[in-house]
């Protein structure tokens, strides 16, 4: 009986050990293998002869890579700020117990149920200069109406921002709404007694007390910025030219289309480092709270 109980208590330990073993081999092992490949001249097939950081030098002297990084910064800043602002406004409206709140939430959560590929294709049709919004307005008699952002190299990146905000605003709304519903009623009573305007109460009292909630939203949105590939492929394919090129698309293209395994691996490692740098302030603040 004692031996049977010992075996039963041993099973969870084995399960956890196997899980961590699999994670270590396939996740961290993949990262290490990718880093090793970035230090080689690997092209179509892996080459295990080390050449140092030559691939990283080539990467940061590659004009296409530099453009993709700049596009990621522009897209990321506008996307995160826009999504947080719209999501917070929608959460405030929902928090005020508006009529048909369930319908309201469903409408703005619906985009989350749609994949980024479908989102990109839908917005591509809407913004198409011939068959989309521009064509519709001109067929209605407004011949001078122009909305060619999708084919304009200077504005194409903003079409990605519009589509991404539409897709992710519902997620931010739900997270912030959950935080607002957790605000103590005594705090609201004090705000009403002091006669503080509603907009000022949210900006100066409620939202500052919800920093962990907002930080969680920022982390989720940053991860979407870093791995921005599906939407780019569906909407613009990186064009016109390389006007909407992103680091994730750069890496995938060099992995599969240009079969330059070494340079693509270097791009992947840099993307990982960018992710860690962007998440460092969040983890630092969380660590300080626990000390």
From TrEMBL:
<keyword id="KW-0813">Transport</keyword>
<feature type="domain" description="ABC transmembrane type-1">
    <location>
        <begin position="69"/>
        <end position="282"/>
    </location>
</feature>
<dbReference type="GO" id="GO:0005886">
    <property type="term" value="C:plasma membrane"/>
</dbReference>
<dbReference type="InterPro" id="IPR051393">
    <property type="entry name" value="ABC_transporter_permease"/>
</dbReference>
<protein>
    <submittedName>
        <fullName>Sugar ABC transporter permease</fullName>
    </submittedName>
</protein>
<dbReference type="Pfam" id="PF00528">
    <property type="entry name" value="BPD_transp_1"/>
</dbReference>
<comment type="similarity">
    <text>Belongs to the binding-protein-dependent transport system permease family.</text>
</comment>
<feature type="transmembrane region" description="Helical">
    <location>
        <begin position="263"/>
        <end position="284"/>
    </location>
</feature>
<feature type="transmembrane region" description="Helical">
    <location>
        <begin position="156"/>
        <end position="180"/>
    </location>
</feature>
<dbReference type="GO" id="GO:0055085">
    <property type="term" value="P:transmembrane transport"/>
</dbReference>
<keyword id="KW-0812">Transmembrane</keyword>
<feature type="transmembrane region" description="Helical">
    <location>
        <begin position="12"/>
        <end position="36"/>
    </location>
</feature>
<keyword id="KW-1133">Transmembrane helix</keyword>
<dbReference type="InterPro" id="IPR000515">
    <property type="entry name" value="MetI-like"/>
</dbReference>
<keyword id="KW-0472">Membrane</keyword>
<keyword id="KW-1003">Cell membrane</keyword>
<dbReference type="InterPro" id="IPR035906">
    <property type="entry name" value="MetI-like_sf"/>
</dbReference>
<feature type="transmembrane region" description="Helical">
    <location>
        <begin position="106"/>
        <end position="126"/>
    </location>
</feature>
<feature type="transmembrane region" description="Helical">
    <location>
        <begin position="201"/>
        <end position="222"/>
    </location>
</feature>
<feature type="transmembrane region" description="Helical">
    <location>
        <begin position="65"/>
        <end position="94"/>
    </location>
</feature>
């Amino acid at each position: 009986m004692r031996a049977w109980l010992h075996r039963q208590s041993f099973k969870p330990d084995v399960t956890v050990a196997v899980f961590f073993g699999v994670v270590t081999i396939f996740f961290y092992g993949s990262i290490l293998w990718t880093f090793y490949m970035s230090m080689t001249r690997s092209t179509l097939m892996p080459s295990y002869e080390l050449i140092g950081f030559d691939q990283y030098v080539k990467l940061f002297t590659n004009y296409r890579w530099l453009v993709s990084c700049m596009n990621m910064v522009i897209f990321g800043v506008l996307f995160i700020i826009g999504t947080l602002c719209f999501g917070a406004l929608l959460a405030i409206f929902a928090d005020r117990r508006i009529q048909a709140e369930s319908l309201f939430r469903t409408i703005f959560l619906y985009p989350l149920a749609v994949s980024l590929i479908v989102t990109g294709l839908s917005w591509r049709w809407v913004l198409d200069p011939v068959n989309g919004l521009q064509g519709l307005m001109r067929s209605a008699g407004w011949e001078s109406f122009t909305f060619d952002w999708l084919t304009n190299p200077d504005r194409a990146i903003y079409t990605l921002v519009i589509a991404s905000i539409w897709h992710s605003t519902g997620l931010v709304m739900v997270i912030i709404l959950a935080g607002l519903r957790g605000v103590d009623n005594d705090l609201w009573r004090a705000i009403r007694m002091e006669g503080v305007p509603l907009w000022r109460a949210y900006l100066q009292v409620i939202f500052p007390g919800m920093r962990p909630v907002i930080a969680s939203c920022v982390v989720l949105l940053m991860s979407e910025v870093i791995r921005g590939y599906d939407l780019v492929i569906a909407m613009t394919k990186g064009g016109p030219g390389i006007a909407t090129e992103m680091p994730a698309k750069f890496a995938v293209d060099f992995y599969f289309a240009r079969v330059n395994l070494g340079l693509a691996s270097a791009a992947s490692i840099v993307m990982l480092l960018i992710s860690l740098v962007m998440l460092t302030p969040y983890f630092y603040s969380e660590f300080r709270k626990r000390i």
